[in-house]
Design a protein that fits this description.
This protein is mainly alpha-helical. It contains five helices and no strands. Helix 4 packs across helix 5. The longest helix has 13 residues.
């Protein structure tokens, strides 16, 4: 069993020594939802920039997250990619205010 999975199981057993009550399954699964790693955020931003998809809108980012992770993107992950893109943006060649 992978170490991260063992850590999750140990955490659940510590919090629920007698087993997880049925009413707590859905909230627990919500807490355990996958989150993009920092490397995945960088990869997605780089792929969008490399494809010339800038400025990337929310839909572009969601599609790229889905391609990379094969999962539905969360709003938090979309915001992290948007922040990464904004922090590493370059001047727009057609914008006369940029030099």
């Amino acid at each position: 069993m992978p170490p991260f999975l063992s850590a999750i199981i140990d955490w659940l057993r510590a919090g629920y020594p007698d087993g997880v009550p049925e009413s707590d399954y859905i909230p627990l699964l919500a807490l355990l939802r996958r989150r993009l790693s920092d490397d995945e955020v960088r990869q997605i931003a780089a792929e969008l920039a490399g494809a010339g998809d800038l400025p990337a809108d929310k839909t572009d980012i969601q599609v790229m997250i889905t391609k990379v992770t094969n999962e539905m993107p969360s709003e938090t992950d979309v915001a992290r990619v948007q922040t990464r893109l904004a922090g590493h943006a370059w001047p727009d060649a057609e914008d006369p205010t940029c030099e």
